[in-house]
Design goal:
Shape: elongated
Radius of gyration: 24 Å
Distance between the termini: 39 Å
CATH topology of the largest domain: TIM Barrel
CATH architecture of the largest domain: Alpha-Beta Barrel
Number of helices: 17
């Protein structure tokens, strides 16, 4: 197999004052990597900084949920179907700035840049008394001038904390049912004052936020927005209206980058496209954003990009300047280094089942631990670092069953230096995934089967297919240890 030449993906890019070492980005994704939301504990650092050590050049980590103008007697919003709003600004909490600075320092030691995303996500406030999402009928309060001023100030305060902690850039969240999104959308912004109207008027709230933040951070940090390229919502804006709004925002001279995706939290497609959608299917949104902007404003496109070859083609063909690859880095934090070194067959590719974001969006139980369907290290990064080591005395290990659990047991045992034999009665490894991948829209599930097959071959595991693992067969191998995966014993 000829080695792929990544002529664009691993080239650096100047984004305002921020020098990004390559074009691979971890766009902000709230997988809830810390044991307690809103903290930067060792689990958070291990998960997100681990991607930087794995070669990802831009680390967005997780969004900052900003405080809201509740009356003192009102309860925090935590139970509505969208959002979270609180009296208490977590970014001003004890230890927040100090632990954030340590996280950013770790990202910088790994050679990546750190970008903070600032978010107001709430069903209580909106430009107009229109439900923020169609999935619920809660009627929000239409914000007034005093509340708008309150919101502006929260962005300023949060940006100050990020700047002082060592952030390289600030991203204002203007998509996915956030307050900024609600001002941009003709569905939720039906105001007749200066904050509403056509595309040129609906951007005023976002521009107001950007003006305040730019004044706060000066020209030392990059500033940008995350924006939906196409709402895919009845009455919502399309690519053409997005281009018009983004053009006016770009003309202010306030932004250095824009992160484009499509869809919204409760729609089809969601802004986290599943395997039912093609790879980078909505890439035209990136090219649409690129069309009218000053070339100095970088465009990131985010939306089911799990393969570095696809990412290279997107940049080469002018769809974007940067590629958002959040789930690619969850399924394999080292995929960027592997691609750069030509080890494509060693990449564990995301199968786009969306479990990572789906479970993170459910009501949290503390302590919380994120999950990935195919990467067992997710949520266990600290434990792995503490306990994984080469075997002091290599042994003969027999693994019975070639499903994913058996394959992973064999893979890790071989990585530790053991001599491993895997016995599987079927014609191919993969277990129940061989059935799941036959369902419509789930053919990418086979990528995990390829990964296991490639890894076991690379590591020298003796894989014996169509083999009945009875007592005699196992004894004949004289194992020191036997690993048996039994559905009945899970």
């Amino acid at each position: 197999m000829a080695k792929v030449k990544f002529e664009h993906l691993f080239s650096p890019l100047q984004v305002g004052p921020m020098r990004v070492p390559n074009r691979i980005c971890e766009p902000t994704n709230s997988i809830n990597a810390s044991m307690a939301p809103g903290t930067f504990d060792e689990h958070f650092v291990a998960h997100h900084a681990g991607k930087a050590w794995g070669g990802t050049g831009w680390i967005g980590s997780e969004t900052w949920l900003l405080d809201s103008p509740f009356p003192p007697e009102a309860a925090d919003e935590v139970g509505l179907p969208v959002g979270f709003a609180s009296h208490y600004p977590i970014y001003e909490g004890p230890g927040f700035a100090e632990t954030l600075a340590k996280f950013y320092a770790e990202v910088h030691r790994a050679g990546a840049v750190a970008v903070a995303q600032l978010t107001h996500l709430s069903a209580v406030w909106s430009p107009s008394e229109i439900p923020v999402i169609g999935a619920q009928d809660y009627t929000p309060h239409a914000v007034g001038e005093e509340e708008i001023e309150f919101f502006f100030n929260t962005y300023v305060k949060a940006a100050t904390v990020a700047k002082n902690a060592g952030a390289d850039g600030i991203e204002i969240h203007c998509a996915h049912e956030t307050l900024c999104y609600c001002f941009l959308s003709p569905v939720t912004n039906r105001r007749t004052d200066r904050w509403g109207g056509g595309p040129q008027e609906r951007i005023r709230f976002v521009v107001g936020v950007l003006e305040r933040v730019r004044k706060t951070i000066g020209d030392k940090l990059a500033l940008g927005i995350r924006m939906s390229g196409h709402e895919f919502r009845q009455g919502g804006y399309d690519l053409l209206q997005m281009r018009e709004m983004l053009y006016y925002i770009g003309e202010t001279g306030l932004i250095n980058f824009v992160d484009i995706d499509v869809g919204h939290c409760w729609g089809a497609p969601s802004y986290v496209p599943s395997s039912y959608y093609g790879h980078a299917e909505f890439r035209e949104a990136g090219k649409a954003a690129r069309a009218d902007l000053d070339p100095k404003i970088a465009v990131m496109f985010t939306g089911r990009i799990n393969d570095p070859v696809v990412a290279e083609d997107l940049i080469k063909d002018g769809y974007c300047d940067l590629v958002g690859m959040a789930r690619a880095g969850i399924s394999d934090p080292e995929f960027a280094n592997k691609a750069r070194e030509g080890r494509l067959s060693e990449i564990r590719r995301c199968i786009s089942c969306t479990r990572c974001i789906d479970e993170a969006a459910e009501p949290l139980t503390l302590p919380y631990k994120p999950r990935c369907s195919i990467n067992p290290l997710v949520g266990n990064e600290v434990r792995w670092k503490q306990h994984y080591r080469p075997a002091e005395s290599p042994k003969r290990v027999v693994v019975v069953g070639g499903g994913l659990a058996g394959c992973e047991a064999a893979r890790v045992a071989a990585m530790r230096g053991h001599k491993v034999t895997l016995l599987e009665q079927g014609k191919r490894l993969g277990g129940q995934l061989l059935i799941a991948m036959k369902a419509p829209g789930r053919d990418d599930f086979e990528d995990q089967v390829y990964f296991e097959e490639n890894e076991l071959e690379r590591l020298g595991v003796d894989v014996r297919l169509q083999t009945n693992a009875d007592v005699a067969a196992i004894k004949a191998l004289s194992p020191d240890a036997v690993v048996i995966w039994s559905r009945a014993g899970r």
